[in-house]
Amino acid sequence: MKRCSLLRNGGRRWKLRGAGLFILGLGVVMAVGARDATAETDEEAAALRAEAYQSLIDGDHAASAGRTPEAVAAYSKARGLYQVIQKKFPATDPPVIAYRIRYLNDRIAALSRKEPLVEAVGAQKQGETATAEATAAGEVAPVAGQAIAPFDVVPAGRGEVRRATLSARKRRAGEGQAAEVARNAAYYRKKYEVLLQENQYLHRRLSELQDELESAAEKPGASNLRKRIIELTQENAELHDQLSIAHDKLRAARELLVAQEDLQAQLDEAAAMYEQLMRENRSLGDEVARLSAQLNRAAKVRSEMGNRIAELTAASERWSREKKELQRQYQADLAEQRRANEQQRRRTRDLQARISELQRGIDQVEAEKRDIAARIVSLEADRRNYKARLKDAETRSSELEKRIEELRRQYAAREQRWQKVRAQMEDQLRSEQEAVAQYREQVAALQRRMESLEKDLAFLRDEQMRSREQLTRLRQEKAELIERVDAAGAARAGLMQQIERLRGSLAEAES
Question: Residues 369, 222: one domain?
């Protein structure tokens, strides 16, 4: 009986006789059958994950459009599908599935808490509109969400006290908005820590991939495995680029949050610093223009991610066709083994060339890992700077409150002096009536100036609301980018499962 030899490492050969070849072919056929059954299970899990991810995206769009019930329904559907995957397919990337379930729970809880908050914000806007109208008419308007009490109505001759009351009410509204900004900052820090944990998990998976790659580098028949690992390395590089874009957007969101806190503090100072508020209003317009440009770039990244998903789907179909073609080719090679010795030697040379290409790809992955570590260090430094700026803003807010109290005392003292002067003017002679008229003109000019300042305050409050809406949209874009990184991790996990199945097939072939 003739023998056929197969090249191994360093020129060593495996010598197989006819019976050995038959057993080897039988083992490969059984491995292919088991792999097909596993592939069907993987396809079912992939279909459920695709449906769950689509529901998650629908929920994000509904939340950004303000449709809270629709967003909660979509998030609940996605959470149910991920729970089914977690129970039915426990081996399908457990860290990513668990993270998405936690994320959906947080989103549903946040939207459930936000519904009364949205109503309160609408009432606040109505109250601000009523305040502006009442101020123009010379009346006192109620605070948002409160009725007009009898003691809120001040006689028309006591304009100074009325304006002091309005300033106190605006200060209370500003304190509520500052508390909301603090809650948003805490939520943002929590999401940043979750993203950092996911990044560390991806690093660990990449290290495991490299270890398995080194152990499988000496095994024959692993050319398809190495080719797919090279493609995975290229996709990982693209994902790292997208992650850097996401980090830039997070940095821009932090800058917007700091600008919003500065604007809140400047609103409290507007009664005495009108010129400074106008300058910062122009700077806020520049910030809004810059954020609009960033939103356009985020939309472009979203379209690129859609194209990338389509490319991954096409690549999956192409791999399935290649698998069937390899099965037919193996059957033909098994029937014509005697004439395939020369072809086997050529394949061995190609395999060695692919191994060298794979080594170069591994070097590129190491360089990308070092770049990611440097980016993580820079993000930690940005987080520390953000905490320091937040502490400075709180200190400045307390100083502004003290200044407002001092202004209120000055207003009260001025009102008392004005009443004394009025009593003296009634007792004086007609020669002092001209001085009284001039004083009244000064008081009227001061009232007109205060009304102008109140209109400017209303305009700046509207600008603040628009900035807050833009910040909300940026946070939603950040959540979508995090989900895309998770989807890429899921795709990488699927490739790892295929690698493990190929390793099992190679082990059976060697036995």
Answer: yes
Contact 461, 267 (CB under 8 A): yes
Q: Is residue 7 part of a domain?
A: no
Residue count (the chain): 511
Examine the domain organization and report whether 127 and 194 are in the same domain: no
Q: Using CA atoms, how far apart are residues 230 and 238, in angstroms rounded to an integer?
A: 13
For 118-154, what is each residue's pLDDT tens digit?
A: 333 343 444 444 444 444 444 334 343 333 333 333 3
Structure tokens at 348: 């061995």
Domain co-membership, 488 together with 339: yes
The DSSP 8-state label assigned to residue 485 in this structure reads: H
pTM of this prediction exceeds 0.85 = no
**Residue 229 contacts by C-beta under 8 Å, 6 or more apart in sequence?**
209, 213, 358, 361, 495, 499
Distance CA 122, CA 116 (A): 10
Domain boundary among 108, 137, 166: 137
Domain span at residue 289? 174-385+453-511
List b or e across 246-268, with b for residues whose CB sees 16 or more CB atoms inside 10 angstroms. bbebbebbbbbbbbbbbbbbbbb
Distance CA 64, CA 420 (A): 58
How many whole angstroms separate alpha carbon 477 and alpha carbon 471?
10
In angstroms, the CA 472 to CA 454 distance is 27
Domain count, the chain: 2
